[in-house]
Amino acid sequence: MKPFAIAVMLATVAVSACAPAPAPPPAAPFSVVEATIPDMQKAMQEGRVTSRQIVEQYLVRIALYNDQLNAVVTVNPKSLQEADRLDQERKSGKTRGPLHGIPIALKDNIHTTDIRTTGGAIAFENLVPSYDATLTKNLRDAGAVIIAKTTLSELANFVTNGMPGNYNAVVGYALNPYDPRRDPRPVTGDGRGVLNTGGSSSGGGTAANLWAANVGTETSGSILSPSNQNMLAGIKPTVGRISRYGVIPITADQDTAGPMARSVTDAAILLGALESAVPDANDAATATCQAPPNRDYTPFLKREGLKGARIGIPRANYYDRITPPGEKNPRGGLNEAQAKSMADAIEVLKKEGATIVDADIPSVVDPDPKNNFLLWGGACEKGPRGPNCSSVLWYGMKRDFNAWLASLGPGAPVKTLAELRAFNTAHTNRNAIKYAQVNLDNSDLLDLDKDRAKWQADRDKDIRLAATHGIDEVMTAQKLDALLFPGASGAGIAAKPGYPTVIVPFGLFVPQPPPSGQSLPASLAPTSGAYPDGFTLQPAPYGVSFTGMACSEPRLIELAYAFEQATKKRVPPTSAP
Question: Can you give the pTM of this predicted structure?
Fold first, then answer.
């Protein structure tokens, strides 16, 4: 090499060595879309984002997509102020826990003293309660930002029969982000969505990333069903684990609040914040279960949680069709797509080290009609006093709803269930009872003294068939860690004794016709009439549920988390990117 070339080369090396390194490309801005609660916490701890900025992103998404989904009844006008206060606490070195600065939405039957609590009813459209729900206080103490109140089925879907899920007179119909179109058929073209949202708690806003997670309530399916329909992880807790004080009731016999989130991790974090450190004096049932140390469920997020587990498969009715004693036609069972999905799920459990046990629920297959769960409680055509009609929900509604109204004091818009019925009748021009109010009528028909003996007998039979001769019997005999139910199908039997369930997203497929002679479940699509030519149903979410006996949430979380991590089947909706 020539001396001149060598000199140039050496000079170039020297300059390169002395020159500053090029600046790294700027980090991508933090996005809330599909971010987990731990993701948000880490970003705030590292100074990459603030709680205010997270809330702002969610408020923008609400503004963009709520017209399409109608997932919100009321946005908290002070949510940015709450975020600012929590950001200031963080700057001063104080953090309240894993929910510090995280936006959470509440079902609009949960009291907040600074946001209206309507229950979806015209009578309560301007109600701002004088006291917070215990769970609201717990969330705020944990540092959560209450960003909004979610659309719900009016009064948690106990106004009437046949009302579409997630309809209420205050804001109308909420729609499912996995198919947010309205039903085009004339018979069901009243504004409802083509894809059911599931239950009375809206999960659509969480699925569409309008907030980090939401709190639903369940009496029989209204956490599990919307979680199933919106591809969410949901935890329906043991009745009493979370205080019901300050939640508009159906019945204290079965009511509970619970978390709905995009991951089992987020749901477990939210569950710990919802639970009180000590039993709530305003809700005796809160003495039922003991909270884990520091109310922290994250130690149960174990990747190997399925290894060595015994999982029961209640095939009769829930997987396979069955003809109850005295009946001619079979009922229950899964269609082809559902059956394949559950078969795939069972294979995952086996690969993860679980033992699978066929475990029919004794009361479901009992040949004695008096001891058969499938034949009990539903013969209510003549009202709740009928001999084979369980009066539990109707009796509890009158007892507990009137007690709730009394707790509102002089600010209560109506004072009794009877006054609410009269109000609704007087406001039919505002769709107060668009689908009638037969459940409210039947509840008010009951006399809390004269009908107490029947309620107690019905309640005892609910417990005997669902628990003692049902879930308890099979789980104890087979030494099971959990029962595995398709979708949210186990909600009804687990709800009666108040048992916990954790649901995990798994399937996503176009609704199929049911087996011959069986109607299509309402959770998939209405059945009244054919769709117009060219109208195609979109794939619907489908999950799997792990159900156990009272206070078994820690074990159920282990199982559900391990299953979720082994499968990771959740996909966000494409309608709200």
Answer: 0.93
